[in-house]
Amino acid sequence: MTSPAAEVVLFDPELPWQRARSVALRPEPFGALVYSFGTRKLSFLKSELLVTVVQALAEHPSATATLAACDVPESQRPAYLKALADLARSEMIEVRTS
Amino acid sequence: MTAVLPSRPVERPTGGRLVDQFQYGLDAPICLTWELTYACNLACVHCLSSSGRRDPRELSTAEAEAVIDELQRMQVFYVNVGGGEPTVRPDFWHLLDYAIGHDVGVKFSTNGIKLDRGRAAQLARTDYVDVQISLDGATAEVNDRVRGTGSFATATRALENLAEAGMKDVKVSVVVTRENVGQLDEFKALTDRFGAQLRITRFRPSGRGADVWDQLHPTQAQQRELYAWLVANGDQVLTGDSFFHLSALGSALPGLNLCGAGRVVCLIDPVGDVYACPFAIHEQFLAGNVRSPGGFQQVWQHSELFADLRNPQTGGACTKCAHFDACRGGCMAAKFFTGLPLDGPDPECVQGYGETALAARDATTLTPKSHLDHSHTGPVRGQPTLLGMPAIPAKLCDESPLAGADLS
Question: Where are the beta strands (DSSP E) in B62-206?
Fold first, then answer.
């Protein structure tokens, strides 16, 4: 169920992304919990805007475009890209292929 | 004595550390333990739920399914199923499939009694199920003294069957005691041998554990060794974040260093009662029942008890301690069942304040007892020998005058 290291995709913000299909998201007062049924890992989205971004990934051509569409302030975009890179590494989000 | 819940102010802050968010509670638990039955084939001396006999009021299959439906609606991603011995419930395998079919993953703890080759193969084929085999000694000698004669053999046979079936990520779950804390490396070797993962958790004075706590809880010196071992090996073992009281010895251990009772953790017991934590089966920590109107969600989100627990501790001796941010005052259940105030030190406080507090207890202090006890009332086959009671042989022929005799 866990991808072998060789298959782990490096986070490229210009690619189309989506919440991984084996991942469930539960809204919470501080943001949301995400749980991967595949890796059994739990992670936390620590702002409501990040929750919106993760949910919206699937509707936009790239992660960068998603941040713009969700009105993430320019100054915060590097932090959001880093958060998305972390989520990619823990397999919470995946590259969209279709 | 009356235990006083810490006094509290209220507003949840925005942003900040997760630990600060978690102390205000969540819309649904992260770590929900569900004990399916109080029935158990064993009679472990330190059983946290005083299990043994089935409770006649146990949730029916239909009621258990309704709880699962509700957990699915609340997006409780997985449940930790235990008991008693959950697999002795005849509908256990049905409920397992039902939960998984409703997006509720299952991690269950078992002594291995029902995990023959067939069941092991079935589990290996099932997604979203994790198995934890309980073992409290790395050798039969140490284990069977507290879990009962033959229980080491049962557990290792189950581990063998699971390994043979190709079951992935099996856990061996160990409660750390004075008698097995010296075996941590041996436990690691044993679990490696079965391709399993080691999980060690803290021994609490809950259930029958209260009766043997003085005898079995690790000494201060052992706690320091345990801390050193966790710092050295922590990335390879699971701990259920249960040793956060040790964080006051130095740098914080990985995980959530906070009592999660009623905040991110709770227990549903076999009759549907909801307690703040699996180690707190006592009326004082009973928040409601899943059978009442509004079900589990009502209890989790609106019970008065849980609202009280979801407020940061602001008073009490511990808040003045330099290590409070590291250990947060330790384990609520450990304090409660040793008769200590809930806003004071943990009885195993590594700074030594717990021992002082224990010594200062009034001679008339009665430690609180749970209103529930499902312990076997008669002798049990393969009974533990820790308490000095004679064991009934696991098999009658073990003590036959002819057993082992060479009759050929």
Answer: 78-82, 105-110, 129-134, 171-176, 197-202
